[in-house]
Structure formats: C-alpha cells, structure tokens
Amino acid sequence: MRARFCIFLAVAIVVILAVAIPVIIIERAKTDRNTDVQGRPGTAASAEDQSRADWGNSFDISTDWEVNWPDTGVTRTYSFDIAEVDQFVGGDGVVKNKAMLINANFVIGPVIRANWGDRINVTVSNHLQSSGTSIHWHGFRQLNNNINDGTGGVTECPIPPGSSKTYTFQATQYGTSWYHSHISSQSASGLQGAIQIEGPASYAYDIDLGVFPISDWYYNATDQILNRVFSAANPFVPGQPGTPPPSDNVLFNGTNINPLGTGGNYAKIMFTPGKRHRLRLINAGVENTFTISIVGHSMTVIATDFVPVNPYPVDSVYLSVGQRLDVVIDANQPVGTYWLNATFSAARVCGSSNNAHPAAIVQYDGAPWWIPTDPGTAPKDTYCADDIAATPVVPRVAPIGLFVPDTSNTLNVSLNVDSSVSKVYWEVNSSAIDVTWDKPTLQDVLDGEGTFQTAQNIVEMPGQTQWTFWLIQNLSPVPHPMHLHGHDFIVIARSAALTNPLDPSNQPVTFNPAADAALLSQTSIPIRRDTSVLPAYGWMLVAFQTSNPGVWVFHCHIAWHVSQGLSVQFLERAAEIVHLMDVSGALGETCPAWKAWEGGGGVQKGDSGL
Known about the structure:
Oligomer: single chain
GO molecular function: copper ion binding; hydroquinone:oxygen oxidoreductase activity
EC number: 1.10.3.2
Protein name: laccase
Number of helices: 7
Domain Plastocyanin-like: 93-201, 211-367, 435-574
Distance between the termini: 41 Å
Organism: Echria macrotheca
C-alpha cells in the first residue's frame, strides 16, 4: 500500500471527522481569470450541446488555423517581473536553495488567457541578480514572427538584469500550452506558466476546469544540478555520466504534500456530479514523465498539444515533457474523493522521483472531505512512448513517396563523454549545440552570413512550402521528447518502445527502408503535434512543410539534455526573413543592453545557452 495512504489507514475509524488535510482547490476555472475572456460566444453548453464545435463568424473546429483564423482586434496585456528568491519555501513546504519567480507567484507564473484571434503582449522585466533571461511561448506558430519566439542566442539576445522586453504575438491557434524561459534550464527554477486560449472543441463538455500543469521539482539550485549532470567525474549515478537526479517532488498546479515529512498541500480538483469536465493537462516539467489516470474514471482525449483531434476514450494518458493533452471526464461515479495518479514507467529511463507515487485528489461536490482509500490499479505502462493513434480533426498527410533516407535528412542523437574536459554532452550528428548569446542566429541572418559555425548546428531549408522529412535516430538508451518551434509536425512512424532500455545487450534499432516500409504506409490520418517522443535505441520519422520563415530550434525538451547540447536549428527560407519582420528593431531591443552588461562582467554561460 502506498505511503500516501498511511495517514488514512492510521485514522480510518475517525476519517468521517473533519480531517485537516491542506489542499489547493481547482474548480471551474472561475478564479485568476480575465472576466472578458468568455470562451465560446453564447450561453454555456450542456453535455448534449454539440455547438462547442462552432466558434461563430464562419470559424469552427474544422477551420485549418494554418490557413485562416479570426482577428478579434483585442489585445491581452501582461507584465512579468522576474526575480530570484533565496531559501524559497515551495509548494510542498520545503525550502529550495534558489528559485526564480514571475510576479512572486507560487512556483508557477500567472496564467495567460485569451480568445482565439486575440493579440497577446507580454512585457518581461528582468530583476535577476546575475543572469539574462528570455521567455518562449511553447507551441505557438509565430507565423512571420520569429523575432518573438523567445529563444536566447537564436532569435534574440537575453534580456539583461535591469532591462525589459515586450513580446507581441497573435493567438492564431487555440487550446492549451505554456511558456518558459529558454535560457540555461531556468524553467527548472520556476520561470514558467500556463496558457489557455479559448476556441472551439471537438467534444461537448459542461465545465472547463482550466489548465493543470504537472512538473518535477528540485530543492537544489539548478546550476548545481547542471554541474553534476555535465560532470564525467561526479555523476548522480556512479559510473553513468550524464544521468539526472531523481526529482525531489512532483507538483500539481504548483503544489503537493511533502512526501518525506510535513507541510505542503494536495492539489484538489472539484467535480460536479453528472457533468462533463474539460481538464487541460500540461507536462511543464524538467525531466520526469508520467502516465496520468483517475481512479474509477475514464477520459476522452480531444486535443494533442495545440491540435484538436477526433475524440477517443482512454483509461490513462502518457504525458512527456512539453506535451499537453486536453481531456474530458464524465463525473459519473459515486459522490466521493478519488486519486489522480501520476505513475512512473518501469523502464527507468524517463523519470523518477523521491515521491514515488505522486498524486492529486478529485473531490465531487457534496462529498465529505477525506483522503481517498482506493489507490486504483496501475495504468498500462507505455515504456515512455506517447500515444500516436490520435487523428487530427483537420487532416494533413505528407507525400511519403518523396522521402528518401540519406545523411542530409538524418539526425543521429548520441551521448558523448569528452574526457579532455571531463564533461558530458548530448550531440546531434556528433555536434552539441552551442549558441552565442551576444550574436544570435537572427543576427547572422541580418548580416547575410552564408557560413555558420559547426556548433550552431544549423540545418538550412531554403525551399518554399516544401515537405521536409526528418529521420531521428537514437543511439542511446534514453528516450527524448523532441519539440519543434514554429511548427507542428506529422509523426509518420517510429520504432517500438523497449521494455528494458538499460539491458546491456540492447543495440540501436536503425531504420530499414525495406523492413520498415509497412510502418510508413499512412492508412489513417497521422497524428500531428509539436512534441513527440524519440524511442530509446530507436528511430522516429517526422515531416512538416517549410511554410514559416525563421530560425526554429528542434530540441529535446528534457532541460538537462538541451543544456548539454541536444538541438539543431532549422534555418527556414533565410532569404525571406528580413523582409517579413523587423529583425533589426527586435535585436536592437535587447542586444545593445545585453552586450554592455555582459562586457561589464556579467555571468558567462556554462552550457549550450538554451
């Protein structure tokens, strides 16, 4: 029986009394919400009201938002003040050595809310003592707006201490996402928050419970953890350089109990009996991945990342770092309390925690408050593989006959221990990315550079609106959630997940055009999203169109891994970039101040910069 039930078992006789277990309540997305962000125009929908698919003004769930989207003329304005907090008491009541917070929020930043077609302006002011920063708007396409992608060393110079930058972009997509710093794993220190864009839905529901980020949490300072992850001489697991530490806890919407002592709060989600509830799940983590399930309840998946899908029922969902899943849950069980469980894989390569059984609590309206007694059954172990069976409402099929595997479209991922400097790197095609903060890649584009440094990991794609195919080959026993900026991608096929990736007899499974031809046959509409998992010792084939000029990174979303170099930069239609956006003006907003601060003795980067 799990540790979190011990309190209940010890006091089972008196559980009907007022048990004083602290909770953080999530209900109906009624709080911390802009009152003029109303969601679907019109009256509230019932479970039988299928009009959630309709958004009005000829926009609906079948609208292809890569081609057409509303323009509301509304601007949502936010201000972020970023500062460090030493000896920060986190959401589980335990002190973290050093945190970085937005608007002094509790672990996670404020929720950005808008309607589909709104413009979003966010002014970010850096009050950190000795670090630059940036904010990336995860999953947003940023069509012809690469200058607002928020990737330090790629699309901008970092915002130096004492300076600010205003990001502006339109919500041409809708659904669930998040934002985070894209500088040296700062998101692990707390620089992150959720985004909720109201739009149509492929399935009816009554109550939108809002965003529900789940993330691993570490008590040590992020730079201290990175030093050991990089170290070949002092890894977290002796004899295994590059291994990450277990997280100290897993937080649900920024909170949880302390698994090793007193303090903290369970996150609690409120269900209304007989109603359908939309829950927007986000893995806003650093390294941990989970299978999410609710005891006694099934779920209906309606969106993968920003892509609406045809609804399908599941008992549990796997969520890797950076991924989002919108699910609808029927509150059709007896009134009571139920565990929402985040279960780790037995594969041992996609996360572990000192909180071995992290959970939140679902409570029905009208139920007495008590700790749930039924732990539920363990969900199916996907062995770190995300579900690729979902079919998008708006289909897109790549012309697979154009794919011919060769070295020009193959990205080999490998771990390298550099004995000359006693450091551990994750490399793509034998190169760990290393961006230059004071001369971001967009500066190279502005200057007309035709030759790039090897460590920039530039992949040039000059062709207009052409299908491009990428075979990612994993030469390591660790799966990687691969995230692409500026695009969704189609997952055409991938190799099977290994049940025991750390078995020393394993060897990389390489793509074989003849043997794997059947896997490439697109008999159904393939899944499309912006983050998907590259299997351990396996391969994944993805495709997207070159429809968005800019410099877009394609990287592992495990924070430690991208810090260690696991990324490339897709330089897409470079000749058009400076004609579509004000690159010079955007770089001028932060680069002069950054160079002055850096030249005055500012902290130098010790990782890839991403």
